[in-house]
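Quick log. Single chain, no ligands specified.
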Amino acid sequence: MYDARKFKQLVHYVCSRRSDNPSSLGAVKLNKTLWLSDLASFYTLGHPITGARYVKRQFGPVPTPILPTLRELESEGVLTITEADHYGKRKTEYVVNLPATDEFLSPEERGIVERMIRFVCEEHTAASISEASHDHIWKAAEDGEEIPLFTVFAQPGKITEEEREWARMTLEAEGL
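-> predicted structure:
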Protein backbone atom coordinates (compact mmCIF):
# COMPACT_ATOMS: atom_id res chain seq x y z
CA MET A 1 0.00 0.00 0.00
CA TYR A 2 1.31 3.43 -0.98
CA ASP A 3 2.47 5.59 1.91
CA ALA A 4 2.62 9.20 0.64
CA ARG A 5 4.24 10.51 3.80
CA LYS A 6 6.98 7.88 3.70
CA PHE A 7 7.54 8.52 -0.02
CA LYS A 8 7.96 12.24 0.66
CA GLN A 9 10.34 11.52 3.53
CA LEU A 10 12.36 9.16 1.34
CA VAL A 11 12.69 11.73 -1.45
CA HIS A 12 13.87 14.30 1.10
CA TYR A 13 16.25 11.78 2.68
CA VAL A 14 17.83 10.71 -0.62
CA CYS A 15 18.33 14.35 -1.65
CA SER A 16 19.84 15.15 1.74
CA ARG A 17 22.33 12.28 1.49
CA ARG A 18 23.76 13.93 -1.64
CA SER A 19 23.48 17.52 -0.35
CA ASP A 20 27.27 17.81 -0.05
CA ASN A 21 27.41 17.36 -3.83
CA PRO A 22 24.02 18.30 -5.36
CA SER A 23 25.34 17.77 -8.88
CA SER A 24 25.70 14.04 -8.11
CA LEU A 25 21.90 13.60 -7.92
CA GLY A 26 19.70 14.71 -10.77
CA ALA A 27 16.18 13.61 -11.67
CA VAL A 28 17.32 10.41 -13.38
CA LYS A 29 19.43 9.26 -10.44
CA LEU A 30 16.76 10.24 -7.91
CA ASN A 31 14.15 8.18 -9.76
CA LYS A 32 16.50 5.20 -10.04
CA THR A 33 17.44 5.36 -6.36
CA LEU A 34 13.76 5.35 -5.38
CA TRP A 35 12.94 2.51 -7.82
CA LEU A 36 15.86 0.34 -6.76
CA SER A 37 15.24 0.98 -3.06
CA ASP A 38 11.59 -0.10 -3.32
CA LEU A 39 12.51 -3.01 -5.58
CA ALA A 40 15.32 -4.27 -3.33
CA SER A 41 13.13 -3.93 -0.25
CA PHE A 42 10.34 -5.87 -1.96
CA TYR A 43 12.82 -8.58 -2.96
CA THR A 44 14.64 -8.93 0.36
CA LEU A 45 12.06 -7.88 2.96
CA GLY A 46 8.85 -8.88 1.19
CA HIS A 47 7.47 -5.34 1.09
CA PRO A 48 8.42 -2.07 -0.61
CA ILE A 49 9.58 0.91 1.42
CA THR A 50 7.00 3.37 0.04
CA GLY A 51 4.53 1.35 -2.02
CA ALA A 52 4.78 3.94 -4.80
CA ARG A 53 3.57 2.97 -8.26
CA TYR A 54 6.30 3.03 -10.95
CA VAL A 55 5.70 3.48 -14.67
CA LYS A 56 7.85 3.08 -17.74
CA ARG A 57 9.40 6.29 -19.04
CA GLN A 58 12.16 6.99 -21.54
CA PHE A 59 14.99 6.80 -19.00
CA GLY A 60 13.60 3.93 -16.93
CA PRO A 61 11.00 3.39 -14.20
CA VAL A 62 9.64 6.57 -12.59
CA PRO A 63 7.50 6.82 -9.44
CA THR A 64 4.15 8.39 -10.34
CA PRO A 65 4.04 10.69 -7.28
CA ILE A 66 7.50 12.18 -7.85
CA LEU A 67 6.56 15.52 -9.44
CA PRO A 68 3.80 16.49 -7.00
CA THR A 69 6.01 15.39 -4.10
CA LEU A 70 8.93 17.51 -5.31
CA ARG A 71 6.62 20.51 -5.81
CA GLU A 72 5.31 20.03 -2.26
CA LEU A 73 8.82 19.78 -0.79
CA GLU A 74 9.81 22.92 -2.69
CA SER A 75 6.69 24.87 -1.66
CA GLU A 76 7.38 23.94 1.98
CA GLY A 77 10.94 25.28 1.65
CA VAL A 78 12.46 21.85 2.27
CA LEU A 79 14.16 21.73 -1.16
CA THR A 80 15.14 24.21 -3.79
CA ILE A 81 14.98 22.70 -7.25
CA THR A 82 17.30 24.20 -9.83
CA GLU A 83 18.29 23.54 -13.41
CA ALA A 84 21.95 23.37 -14.36
CA ASP A 85 23.88 22.82 -17.56
CA HIS A 86 25.50 19.40 -17.53
CA TYR A 87 27.66 18.75 -20.59
CA GLY A 88 25.29 20.70 -22.79
CA LYS A 89 22.12 19.13 -21.39
CA ARG A 90 19.67 20.39 -18.79
CA LYS A 91 19.93 18.69 -15.40
CA THR A 92 17.71 19.05 -12.36
CA GLU A 93 19.50 19.50 -9.06
CA TYR A 94 18.12 19.47 -5.52
CA VAL A 95 19.41 21.81 -2.83
CA VAL A 96 18.35 20.71 0.64
CA ASN A 97 17.28 23.60 2.88
CA LEU A 98 16.09 21.62 5.90
CA PRO A 99 17.75 18.52 7.36
CA ALA A 100 16.14 15.14 6.76
CA THR A 101 15.66 12.38 9.27
CA ASP A 102 15.97 8.65 8.76
CA GLU A 103 13.66 7.72 11.66
CA PHE A 104 10.92 6.66 9.23
CA LEU A 105 13.12 3.80 7.95
CA SER A 106 13.70 0.49 9.67
CA PRO A 107 17.38 -0.44 10.03
CA GLU A 108 17.00 -2.91 7.13
CA GLU A 109 15.32 -0.31 4.92
CA ARG A 110 17.99 2.27 5.78
CA GLY A 111 20.69 -0.20 4.75
CA ILE A 112 18.95 -0.82 1.43
CA VAL A 113 18.52 2.90 0.72
CA GLU A 114 22.15 3.65 1.58
CA ARG A 115 23.36 0.86 -0.73
CA MET A 116 21.16 2.12 -3.56
CA ILE A 117 22.34 5.72 -3.11
CA ARG A 118 25.97 4.59 -3.31
CA PHE A 119 25.28 2.27 -6.25
CA VAL A 120 23.36 4.84 -8.30
CA CYS A 121 25.28 8.00 -7.41
CA GLU A 122 28.83 6.71 -7.05
CA GLU A 123 29.01 3.78 -9.46
CA HIS A 124 26.95 5.18 -12.33
CA THR A 125 26.36 8.16 -14.54
CA ALA A 126 22.77 9.11 -15.33
CA ALA A 127 23.21 7.48 -18.73
CA SER A 128 24.65 4.23 -17.39
CA ILE A 129 22.02 3.81 -14.65
CA SER A 130 19.28 4.49 -17.21
CA GLU A 131 20.73 1.84 -19.48
CA ALA A 132 20.97 -0.60 -16.56
CA SER A 133 17.30 -0.05 -15.72
CA HIS A 134 16.30 -0.93 -19.28
CA ASP A 135 15.97 -4.61 -18.45
CA HIS A 136 13.66 -7.23 -19.95
CA ILE A 137 10.73 -6.04 -17.81
CA TRP A 138 11.15 -2.38 -18.81
CA LYS A 139 11.43 -3.39 -22.46
CA ALA A 140 8.20 -5.43 -22.25
CA ALA A 141 6.19 -2.49 -20.89
CA GLU A 142 4.58 0.28 -22.95
CA ASP A 143 5.46 3.91 -22.20
CA GLY A 144 3.40 5.00 -19.19
CA GLU A 145 2.51 1.42 -18.23
CA GLU A 146 2.93 0.40 -14.61
CA ILE A 147 5.91 -1.81 -13.81
CA PRO A 148 4.84 -3.77 -10.72
CA LEU A 149 7.48 -4.51 -8.11
CA PHE A 150 6.74 -8.25 -8.29
CA THR A 151 8.41 -8.22 -11.71
CA VAL A 152 11.70 -8.37 -9.80
CA PHE A 153 11.06 -12.13 -9.75
CA ALA A 154 10.54 -12.42 -13.53
CA GLN A 155 13.28 -14.25 -15.37
CA PRO A 156 13.94 -13.76 -19.06
CA GLY A 157 13.67 -16.91 -21.07
CA LYS A 158 12.68 -18.44 -24.32
CA ILE A 159 9.30 -19.91 -25.04
CA THR A 160 9.60 -23.40 -26.43
CA GLU A 161 7.58 -24.73 -29.35
CA GLU A 162 5.84 -27.11 -26.93
CA GLU A 163 4.73 -24.15 -24.81
CA ARG A 164 3.46 -22.30 -27.91
CA GLU A 165 1.49 -25.39 -28.94
CA TRP A 166 -0.01 -25.72 -25.47
CA ALA A 167 -1.05 -22.04 -25.60
CA ARG A 168 -2.63 -22.47 -29.07
CA MET A 169 -4.55 -25.54 -27.91
CA THR A 170 -5.70 -23.81 -24.72
CA LEU A 171 -6.93 -20.77 -26.67
CA GLU A 172 -8.74 -22.97 -29.20
CA ALA A 173 -10.37 -24.99 -26.41
CA GLU A 174 -11.59 -21.74 -24.83
CA GLY A 175 -12.89 -20.55 -28.20
CA LEU A 176 -10.52 -17.60 -28.30
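The CA atoms of residues 15 and 35 lie 14 Å apart.
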